[in-house]
Amino acid sequence: MKKLMLGNEAAARGLYEAGCAFVSSYPGTPSTEITEEAAKYREIYAEWAPNEKVAMEAAFGASLSGRRSFCGMKHVGLNVAADPLFTISYTGVNAGMLIAVADDPAMHSSQNEQDSRHYARAAKLPMLEPADAAEALEFVRRGYALSEQYDTPVLMKLCTRIAHSQSVVKLGERAEIPPRPYVKDAMKYVMMPAGARGRHVYVEKRMEELALVAESTDLNRIEEGSDHSMGIITSSTSYQYVKEVCGDTYPVLKLGMIWPLPEKKLLEFAAGVDTVCVVEELDGFIEAWCREIGLKKVFGKDRFPLRGELSQNLVAEKLGLPAASGKALSEAVPPRPPVMCAGCPHRGLFYTLHKLKLTVLGDIGCYTLGATPPLSAMDTTICMGASVSGLHGFNKASGGELAGRSVAVIGDSTFMHSGITGLVNIAYNESNSTVIILDNSITGMTGHQQNPTTGFNLKGDPCTKIDLEALCRSVGIRRVRVVDPYDLAACEEAVKEELAAEEPSVIISRRPCALLKYVRHPGPIAVDTEKCVGCRSCMRIGCPCISIRDGKAVIDQTQCVGCGVCKQLCPVDAIG
After folding, report:
1. C-alpha dihedral over 143, 145, 148, 150, to 10 degrees?
2. What is the pLDDT of residues 121-153, one digit of tens each?
């Protein structure tokens, strides 16, 4: 049976067919759907973990128990999970363990561009890189075989285009893999220096064996061409662009096992062509290896960019080939900058922070859009949890001088991910800092996934719900209060009072995301044009529902949910 599938959906199907029994991940675009799709198979236990480090450690534990396991994350999530990653490279596995990481060239939904291939080399782990959905399924199956044969976790790298584009996939049956017995082995799994030294020897030997695999595996294949004046080495989505542009003109070495890279195969391929071009996104990872093994007639990043995505036309341009002609638009498409949704509960709180002219250390989530005009209510965004830890340093270093004019904002899911330890630091080191938890009752940025504060698990079943107020008090924060972000007066009062207090405090800004299906709204409100004086006060909140026409405010009735925040700003009571 064949089916058109997204790359992520196909990877999940691969988990099913390969007999995976345990999945633990943290949502992060473009990797999220792998775990969401895996959860649809009743044979697979699937969960959202509080963060990627926990997910990887849980997947390792499942592997240790003798069941095939998986964890998935986006590229910055692998940074969070790097601690266990480098050490389980030493311990190896019991049952197969696969780790998927999805890079985001061009930063469609990320704070940086990062090439995860470097992690494979640094951690001394094999990495596979599919070029379409069909390969995503197949490479999952092959990854588990490699994992168990060579006693290693296996990385599989996707990118946005592979994860979120479709191709035809041939479906197979599930392989029922019997659990492997767990055998106590302290020298293998207890990474104290005595054991770790011996395991490092094993890791180096394993990499030598995997290098031989890279030479012989059909995951790395040569596709012949008619013109040997140039040979192209490529992988992943870049392979698709090369084939669309070049067809069968030039020989192509298509790499599916991206680490370790095959030395002999690369040298033999290069010997059969006049010059070698490496086409790859982001860093010159393959090109650098080619130069490292002595290839002289190679080019790549001297023509192709180090940032952003490639495309068919860009590949054609850089290779001096004709590009496909497109259709020009008759008029320019207006830009659509990201904006918080109509009725977003974060809007009122950010309006308050902007009004009070506070320094706001921000975090990762849909509320990061509070940094955009007209609210412009955020000063920093670094990584998950950095707002809380950063606020402590910001205030402590100033001797408390800035404490009354600065806050941290962090979402409920992000707080569970990485914010708790920062809050412990604030309490422990008695930092006079105010942290605002933006509790919209969901993980909003990645598409409404559950988290430990929502009361539901990945499959939607009721589960333990973390009490944020009790949690904050338990780590030593005495001042904890809850406000409704739709109530501007209450928000302002809470922020002023907590900033005036001379001890750590937490404000929980609580209202569910306006897009949640169970949320019931009062309905749209309207502007009385007879009363409206065109002062534009309502425009200061940046709601996409509100515009000015003929000097008067107008509310789009198809978007408005009736949150009433704009009504509180109108000095002439023209909105209602």
Report:
1. -80
2. 999 999 999 999 999 999 999 999 999 999 999
